[in-house]
Design brief:
The chain is built from two helices and twelve strands. The chain is of the alpha+beta class and 166 residues long. The chain is globular. β7 (101-105) and β8 (110-111) form a beta hairpin.
Length: 166
């Protein structure tokens, strides 16, 4: 009996940590993939800007962690980056730090975050998991204010299965 329980535990652990496969039939698969990318990259460093004086950095849903450096301000560190949704869908925005997130469209309309948690069952590196329905077009992702100087961010489209290359 103990061997069967151990085997079941090891199989479950292997499935959760399998990371980036060709199919993710459930959201837990998306979380496992996000965990792998948050831990191992690939990564790109960008700056989040506090205002509109500088052209904002862009991030993408491209299986890449973006290490976003936030700008210091009177209320803490904050800033925004651009994300262009290529299709109308639910997207999951993962962060490796528990930081406030707000989203607006390019025309300034607030976008409701459907679901927001500060953890994931299968990955302790996920400190923020935000499910957001986005329309096609450019969106502003604003992080902060927070005491965190840099936040790792990964955007994944939320759907049952998809394939991609590393």
């Amino acid at each position: 009996m103990t061997k069967k329980l151990l085997a079941a535990f090891l199989l479950t652990t292997a499935l959760v940590s399998a990371g980036c496969g060709d199919d993710h039939p459930e959201e837990e698969g998306v979380d496992a993939e996000a965990c792998e990318h948050l831990q191992n990259g690939p990564a790109t460093s960008v700056f989040a800007w506090p205002g509109t004086n500088n052209p904002p950095s862009e991030i993408h849903a491209d299986h890449r962690r973006y290490d976003i450096t936030l700008m210091s301000g009177p209320d803490g560190n904050s800033g925004f980056v651009l994300f262009a949704a290529s299709e109308a869908a639910d997207y999951v925005i993962y962060t490796n730090a528990d930081v406030p997130l707000s989203i607006t469209t390019a025309s300034g309309e607030a976008v409701d975050i459907e679901e927001s948690t500060s953890s994931s069952r299968g990955c302790t590196d996920i400190k923020g998991r935000h499910v957001v329905p986005l329309t096609v077009g450019t969106h502003y992702l604003t992080f902060g204010p927070t005491s965190v100087a840099t936040v790792g961010v990964l955007v994944e489209e939320s759907h049952g299965g998809h394939g991609h290359e590393h």
